[in-house]
Each structure stands twice: as structure tokens, then as C-alpha cells.
Amino acid sequence: MTTRWQEEIRKLRERREKIKQMGDPRAIEERRAQGKLSARERIEKLLDPGTFVELDMFVSHHLTYFGLDKMEIPAEGVVAGFGEIKGRPVCVFSQDFTALEGTFSEMQGQKICKLYDLAMEAGVPVIGIYESKGVRLQEGLWPFRWLGELLYRMSKCSGLIPQIAVVMGNVEGELVFALGLSDFVFMTRDSIAYLGDPETVKEVSGIEVNDSQLGGASMHASTSGLCYYLARDEEECLGKVRELFDFISLNCFEKPPYVETGDDPERPVRGMEEVVLDDSKKPYDMHKVLREIFDNGRFFELRAQYSPNMIIGFAHLGGYSVGVVANQPLIMAGCIDVWAAEKASRFIRFCDAFNIPLIFIQDVPAYLPGTHQERLGMIYRGATLLYASSEATVPKITLLARKAYAGAYIAMNSKCLRADQIYAWPIAEVANVAPETAGSVIFARQIRESPNPEETRQRLLKEYYDKFINPIHGAQLLHIDDIIEPEETRARLIKALKLLQNKRQELPEKKHGCMPL
To answer: How far apart are CA 485 and CA 495, in angstroms?
Structure first.
């Protein structure tokens, strides 16, 4: 090797090392004291060891306003590249808060947009690790062009490749819309994301709020619904993102990975008679049903704190990845409110876009009635669930665990919405309305004119219940494919899932539908 080669290689190595070490020393020390990882350490924790390939390390800004020409901002405040998670390729970027607080600049935007273009061409997910004070104000309108370009690309990528956002600190200003366009948002408990800071809120509304009240991770997990998983710390957060890759496909043209779980497909589902009480007015925890049915009792729940009357998440069934949508009788008797409908709808559309079969488990008395829900837009927001279930062309299987009433029964993947298979347990109640409601209308005159109204009411209600509410009636009318014993549930679901692996269903040719939003 010539002397010049040696010298140039030495310079290259030194420059790389300098960029990796650069950043505000005070900020670096403060973060270490807080137990925070650096931008590169986060990527190393997330990806398989030794797989990360960094791109555009030497990018730098070209502006001179407000002393920018005197600032050294390593890698323009973002580390970007590609690597692998569990042997599967991904593109990833991580904002560096020690480099001018990770502010989104023109060149940072160009780096991230270039990575998105690469991910689209390669057909791999993008994971963004966000921590930024927002748009770099010193650059004026320059960053806004590239923030807009990023948001455009994220919209264009929707349904093409999965987009995962990881929030590990403050994310402020218009950059938060990138979180809203992501398919999944993971946050650590000390994270914050808001569009307008507390001072702006006070100036506009006169209300005093602190950072946590305005955009804290706990608020986003329970109230806004932005956060899909709330992690204790950075290590758990990154571990959960890795776990997500057990269930999702890399793009819309492939299926999710098959995983050999070692759980016997013929394993009987036991104990359901003690969990799902035959008195349909008594609540129970649907999680106990899910743990018994799915492989090894594993259920990867998402948005658990938000609208908990609806449960969504991933599981394996006979080794196949499935999306699960289930009512939670423990909360509001499992009724569907406007938030539950939208929560389920967004999840259903993700699963449909990325070829993940859907398992619906019903125990639902109704859409939640009342003036409050009507004013919140129940008519169109509740219809999102009907739309999403109808639109989905992946394998769709429903289990009627207990109650299945009215419009909620239709929306939770009924035959009307092209469910492929519907099974019911023997105690299931399937009807267009609850028996008490139907009886109060149908038998009103007989009860009113009876010498013993209550006795007559009870007798007529029982007759109505025995004839019209039991699953036999639904099976006779082709609403239900089979009535099964709880013990055979797992085996039957797996057999149906295997049958439907190569399902083909075409929707009418059109540009796109107009979902009720």
C-alpha cells in the first residue's frame, strides 16, 4: 500500500471517529447521568449485532445565517442507515439530541427522505427513533420544505411498507405529525410529544399546563391514543420493537413470517366454562380467553391503555401470525364507543395492508348508546369499523364467545361483511337486539293485559330467548358456520386458517374508497 493510500485511510478513519464522538459535551454528560443512550447506541441495541451500515455520515449544512457557519453539527443531527432485526432487513434513523438538540434541518430532512426512498425501493420497513426540539429555527423555511417532503413520503409509503416511530425524549413542533403518520408509535415513560409548547398553549388559551400534561407519554397512551406501547425505559422499548418483527411482514407484497412455536395445534382449550360465565350480564377478562387460545399463551397487545373496551394485538396461531380484535366485557360490558371503533379500524387496515389474517372474538352487546356518543360522531365514527371489516380481504375468522347483538355484531366481522368462517360457543347469544329490548316491544300488549304481568313477561321472554337468541337459530340461517365446544376452539381456528392461507378476494376496481373519517 502506497504512502498516500495509508494517509487517506488514516484521515478517513479519524474523520469517522470524530463524527461519532462529536456533540455537545455537556449534553452528552447530562444524558449519561440520566441513563439515556446515544443515537448510535440506540441503533446498536435495536439491530442485530454487527449488521448496521451507516449512510451519509459526512452530510453537513451549507447555511451561514445566525452563526451556523461556525457550528459543527455531526451527521446533521441524525444517524441513518440500514441493518437487520432477527435476520430481516430494515432501514433506520436515530435523531441525535446532543447535536443542536436533534433539530430538523434542511440536510437532516434530505438524509431521512433519501432513506425513505431507499426503503421504498427495497421494500423494507422504516424505523425512526425520534428525539428533537423540532424544526431548526436558524434555517428559516429551508427545513420546512424537507419536513413537507418527509410527510409526503410517509403518506405515500402508507400500506406499502411498515413505518414505526420510537419516541425517547422530547419531540416538538410540526415534526410530531411524522408520529401521527406512523403505523406504530412506541414511547418511553419519560417521553413527551406535542405540537405547541406550554408557553404557546398559555398564550393562546390562557391555560397553564406543564410538558407532561400537554404531551406526556402516559397521556398519549391513555387519552390521545398516539402511543401503541408505553415502555418503562429505553431497553424495554427497543426490545418491544424487535418483538413486533415476529408478527409483521416487510412490505405489502409478502406474508408475515411463520414461526415454529412448539405449541400443539390440537391442544384443547380448557377452563372456558369457568371464565366465560353463562350469565351474559356478568363480566370476565377477555385476556384469559386469548391466552388460552393462542400459541404458548403469548399475546402482543397494542394500545392497551386506550379505549380498553376493545382489545387489539398480535399473536401466533399454529405458528401463523394473526391480528386479534376482541371485545373486553370487563370494560363497559364490551360496548363499542367511537374510540374503540377507530382503534380497531386502524389496526384492521394495517393487518389487511400487510397480509396478516384477522381473528375476531366477539362478546359485544351493542354500540354504546347515548347523547355523548352521538355528539362525538357515532354515526360516522362507528361506521369506520364496518368499513374496515368490509374492506379487508385477508383471511377473516370470527369466534362468538357470548353476546353478539345488533350493529356491533355486524361490525365485528359478521357474514354480512364477508367473514370467511364464524364459529360460536354453545352459550353464544346472537340476535338483532337484546331479548329484553325485543320482548318489551313484541310482547308489550300481552304483558300489559295479563293479570300477572311480570310472570307473563318472564315466560314470554324465555320462549323468545330459547327460539331466537341461541346460536342454533343463527346456524340455521347461515350466520354461523358451526357451533363448537370450547375445547376444540384452537384446533378449529388453526384448520380454518390453514385453509385460507391462499385466499383470493378482489374488490371492485376503483381509485380508492372514501372511509368515514
So the answer is: 15
